[in-house]
Amino acid sequence: MSILNAEPEQLRAYELAARIDFDKPRLHRHLDRLEARGMIRRRQTDDKPRGITVELEPDGRAAILAARPARGRHIREAIVQALTPEELEAFTHASEKILAHLRSLER
């Protein structure tokens, strides 16, 4: 759901599947559960008869916001606290480099 939260409006189902590396059946099982809980909404696209877009519902956005403090705490416990300041600096540098490379691949 975080990927959907980062998108301006909606994302096509096939794009979402590619970003999270899910095959089509797995993605649709997850979307079924999220939709049943009122977290997302699926809509037919206008330009393709079988095309589907996925967008967050207000409850989905609220769930993401509610999870942020716990997620930040988990990251600190799992990664940050395990590293020395020097290791954390190297980790940060490597992470930034990897993110820049990944962004260049999306273009």
TrEMBL record:
InterPro entries: HTH_MarR-typ (IPR000835), MarR/SlyA-like (IPR039422), WH-like_DNA-bd_sf (IPR036388), WH_DNA-bd_sf (IPR036390). Transmembrane segments: none annotated. SUPFAM superfamilies: Winged helix' DNA-binding domain. Residues 1-100 form the HTH marR-type domain. This is MarR family transcriptional regulator.
